[in-house]
Predict the 3D structure of the following.
Amino acid sequence: MTKPAKPAARPANPRFSSGPCTKRPGHSLENLRHAFLGRSHRAGDGKARLKQAIDRTAALLRLPDGYRLGIVPASDTGAMEMALWSLLGARGVDVLAWESFGKGWVTDVVKQLKLPDVRVLEAGYGALPDLGQVDFARDVVFTWNGTTSGVRVPDGAWIADDRDGLTICDATSAAFAQDLDWPKLDAATFSWQKALGGEAQHGMLVLSPRAVERLEAFTPPWPLPKIFRLTKQGALIEGVFRGETINTPSMLCVEDWLDALAWAEELGGIEALIARADANAGAIADWVARTPWVDFLAAVPETRSNTSVCLSIVDPAITALADEAQGAFAKRIAGLLAEEGVAYDIGAYRDAPPGLRIWAGATVERTDLEALMPWLDWAYEAARAQLAEAA
């Protein structure tokens, strides 16, 4: 088999990782020169910067009046753990899972918290569970966008307005890129290193008034580590939502987050961020439509992510191979692109079916994705040629 010719154009930025995600266009360490370093984060200026990060994030997301937003430890994982361990236990729970991280929350609820009344509603990679089966008399735990499967809920219409339970949502690869229906969410979490390209280890927790009411009225029967505690003597610790963080944050990361927020604000706010992600996903969709060897992992168009775009190799010559060989073929495509310096970190998540995963959030330029598409074809043909030589 003849080796394919390499495309002439290359992405200016080859960073398509699904987390940490690429920095915003024009990012420079020089923009962080005013970071509040070498001082206590509890000093007046430190707390003011943290409060500014909270207030500007809430404004960008257009959180409803009465909703609280706080900076918490350990990225989105820490924020979700805090929500689960602090809020659950008052009533039965429905947990939805259709990809790796959702399954992780199932493990927490079933095996760690060991709640007695849990229903697990599952679907395989590429699909959603039957949302009509969710019982909103119970608490509901779900991811808005399945980062490792590229499958998202289509909207918030399936969530009951008159629910008795709380909705607890992992929104980390949806926030700043998808239209989150905030009145339908009682607790939501996300991280800085996703859609706005911030730095790792800092999570954010959103609480509705109903969630605050649960926190103040219900005490879980298990001990809570210090970094999970949101109440003291039955009252919400309001300082968490004013920049008085539970543990020490990185003020360099805070400055970087403020820089990302400034870019998003100047761009035009949440609508502009969503539009960029939609356009980026559209560039990939246009290529998929004309490319016979690849398809979306998400079967239903309305549930396809516009951030973590997951692709399957559907060439019959490849799907006829054993699972291990299919995985090796997909990894070879990703490896060839990395070797060429045109795309980094686009292999499927380790627990997901073999394939590719390309981040298309707002910090990615559409021109870079358009330049990448011919390289995907090149890498596929090159991997096919190598496979034929080895046969």
Observations:
- The chain has a mean pLDDT of 97.
- The domain at 269-390 is CATH 3.90.1150.10 (Aspartate Aminotransferase, domain 1).
- The two ends are 12 Å apart (CA to CA).
